[in-house]
């Protein structure tokens, strides 16, 4: 899905369609992350949907060869051309992580340094501590959803790698960013948690843009 290059600015594809290709790709992304295989096809052939679902795509690893082979097979079997997005059955996102990534609208962003990023994206990940935060964007309240973004000092941009629900609001995080958790009570006048975002309230999604961003800056 991350390697897919399509024109998502085409608008609605027909008089009865809404959202155009962008909406369809986003829907496919949501579904495959939940482990659900998704098919995009032309609406002129609803009677062929069962054939499309039951069709077994080629296992040819080469993308160009696979396209040629698949188109030929579909014509022979009289199945309309369609695009199939395979659900991530072995590593699909857990229900709570799916909700965090797709069910909540982020109200702002927390930008973290590379060391913090590594700690909260490893398999046995840690929670987000204030010491790893280098920037706060937007205005949000406690427990609202924010984007988690990787940034590097001196670099003018950051890249999103996940979302989380905050234990502190944006003004409070601005005061405690970059400091040890032991100083939170001193700086805020109260102490709620050592974590700005607990690992159970965090969802991570890595992609090619993030990988390239890291290569450019490390």
TrEMBL record:
Matching SUPFAM superfamilies: Carbamate kinase-like, PUA domain-like
Gene Ontology molecular function: any one: ATP binding
Keyword terms: ATP-binding, Kinase, Nucleotide-binding, Transferase
UniProt keyword annotation of ATP-binding present: yes
InterPro entries linked to this entry: AceGlu_kinase-like_sf, Glutamate_5-kinase_CS, PUA, PUA-like_sf, PUA_sf
Annotated PUA domain residues: 108-197
GO CC annotation: cytosol
Keyword Iron (UniProt): no
Protein's UniProt name: PUA domain-containing protein
Species name: Pichia kudriavzevii
Origin organism lineage: Eukaryota, Fungi, Dikarya, Ascomycota, Saccharomycotina
